[in-house]
Design a protein that fits this description.
Blueprint (H helix, E strand, L loop, with lengths): L2 H22 L3 E3 L10 E5 L6 H6 L6 E6 L6 H9 L2 E4 L6 H12 L3 E4 L17 H9 L2 E8 L1 H4 L13 E4 L15 H23 L1
Parallel strand pairs: 1-7, 2-5, 2-6, 3-4, 3-5
Antiparallel strand pairs: 6-7
Length: about 210
């Protein structure tokens, strides 16, 4: 099937998500003015729930792509559903060069790719430290970063929960972190770690503003 088909399917899924989130979670979105209308970027979101990928992007007027574990795709039907939602499967624990090249290409071509700096879901809803991975993509794609904090998703559907619970969810987007703001970060793993740490600082600031 063509990419145009999957893009249309994406819009159907995201429209359904928007209605469900509005009715079931009474969701609120703040800071949409910070999200650029055009241009590639990384959307950096805290990760506490399986709900996070659609929550991070459904309120935007732009389409997004997001990363997901390749191990989640157990059969062709699941692969089809994930492709309809713009999931990019990536193999964890190893250098998945094919996925990395695709992600960098998408960002450079003007798309937004959602990533979780923490690398995995929080088991208690508390922000964890950022991993080097997002720093790698920022550096190689020369990407701007849109920080985002989601509040309430962990209470609605924590790790191990099968069905979501009706909890209030709020989402906040912060000012874009321009790529040039990372110019002082050295090359290599130390620089990747510094980039990730700075992104997590911005996400933590959004948390404080949203939950204080």
């Amino acid at each position: 099937m063509s990419q145009k088909f999957y893009d249309r399917a994406y819009m159907v899924f995201w429209t359904l998500y928007a209605w469900v989130f509005k009715i079931f979670f009474r969701w609120q979105v703040f800071g949409l003015e910070h999200v650029p209308r055009a241009g590639g970027a990384i959307l950096a979101v805290n990760h506490a729930s399986l709900l996070d990928p659609p929550l991070g992007g459904v309120g935007l007027s732009r389409r997004i792509w997001f990363l997901g574990r390749a191990s989640l795709i157990r059969n062709r039907f699941v692969a089809f559903l994930m492709k309809c939602q713009h999931m990019i499967p990536i193999t964890r624990g190893e250098a998945d060069l094919g996925a990395m090249k695709r992600i960098i290409s998408l960002i450079r071509s003007g798309e937004i790719v959602l990533m979780f700096p923490e690398g995995t879901r929080s088991i208690d809803g508390v922000l964890g430290p950022g991993k080097e991975g997002i720093g790698v993509f920022v550096r190689h794609a020369r990407a701007d970063v849109i920080p985002c904090y989601i509040s309430g998703a962990w209470r609605a559907m924590p790790k191990g929960c099968v069905l979501p619970r009706p909890r209030k969810i709020r989402i906040s987007y912060g000012p874009v972190i321009r790529y040039e703001e990372f110019d002082d970060c050295p090359k290599g793993r130390r620089g990747y770690a510094m980039i990730s740490a700075r992104i997590m600082e911005r996400i933590a600031a959004l948390q404080q503003q949203l939950e204080s």
